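Entry for the shared binder. Reason: the reviewer on the internal report wants the predicted structure included alongside the sequence.
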Amino acid sequence: MVKNTMEKVAFALFLFQHLNKTRLRSLARLRKRRRFLELLHANQVYFDPEQDLWMHYRLRRRSMNELMQVTHQEKDHGWAHHLEVLVFAYWLAHGLSYRATAQTFSVPKSTVYRIVHKMAQQIKKNLHKVVSLPSPEELDAIAGRFAHVGRHSAFGKAVGAIDGCHFRIKPPKQNEAYYFNHMQFHSVQMQAICDSQGKFLDIFVGYPGSVHVSTVLRNSPVYQNASYPPPEYFILGEEEYPCLVTPICLITPYKMASEVRAEQKFNESHSLAHSGVLQAFGMMRARWRLTFSKPLEVSTAFCSDVITACAFLHNVCLMNGDFLRPEHDCERARNLVPPPEKLQAHERSGSHIRDRLAADVHAPLPLPVHLQDHDYC
């Protein structure tokens, strides 16, 4: 009797242990499957050829391939150039120090420093391939888009929008006061001319933050050489700039628009047409938010090269359909004190052109052709 009872208890224990092991194995398989699905979901971006690089480099694959191709040199060989591009893009995307980037790629800090500076120089040498003024054949198409964005044919000869933007830097050891701007931080400025879609056509980087935007304009190559816009065309600028017809045709809004409806309507259309350059600054800052959200962790002399590289990459992204929602707080180079009204000796005011454009904007739109022959009175 006792023996049978012990056998039954032993069998029950054996059965319980067997079932328990089976349950534990099933749970383990379920956990492994769940973990696999979690990893698959977390890393599904790596199975998308257009998204696999975005997380770490803020660039789509097409943009990265274009960057590698544009900056490639004949002396580059093997994986060396690919690694340099990846290191540079990673450093920009995360706003990291050289040391932190070196730890990520398991390379010496000196190697990262050399790669970053080498890539910046290569981009400057190849800047003309991506950031360039349009050809004569492209002007009418660009002007047509400005007229569409400005919602009036009066802007059918606008071929660019100009503005400036501040980028934070560490206080330099020399001439610190020159870099301290009216927004109470140290910066260097970037002047840019863009089309209506936010593509940079011309950039001028490096002036200290305390310099007025009109001074930056007058010292820029596009002004000094009167290289853009061509005759019969004009570019749009904000009220901090002088309204000019020579040496370049630059049309600004009315500084203090009176109650005259024509001036108000012109300023509204001008603001719409000019918005492309603000979108460009906003997209560039949004893409490299971690780099531009704090002072650039490089020497003052190298800041201009970093900003130039970001503008270069911005155009590369647009050329490859790699768009990004812009940030609206782009720290424009808006100065509290307006520029002096007195023009320089070689300059001629463009106010008469602005008045003509304002009259065109305010003029009633003509009736459609199929309504002109009807008398509804």
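Summary line for the report: Residues 42-47 have pLDDT under 50 and may be disordered.
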